[in-house]
Design brief:
mainly alpha
């Protein structure tokens, strides 16, 4: 039913090097101690100005 779902919004701007940023963020997730099942449900959406 989705009753246990938690939604968090992370905003990072500006990011000049998306690949380097993704690598650093992945290291932070690994070091966070958060349960793997929580990290597995993480979704990424990217938006650009038109």
């Amino acid at each position: 039913d989705g009753g246990d779902e938690v939604t968090l919004m992370e905003v990072y701007e500006p990011v000049a090097d998306a690949r380097a940023f993704a690598a650093v963020l992945a290291q932070a997730w690994a070091a966070s101690g958060l349960p793997p099942e929580l990290l597995a449900r993480r979704r990424v959406e990217r938006f650009e100005d038109l």
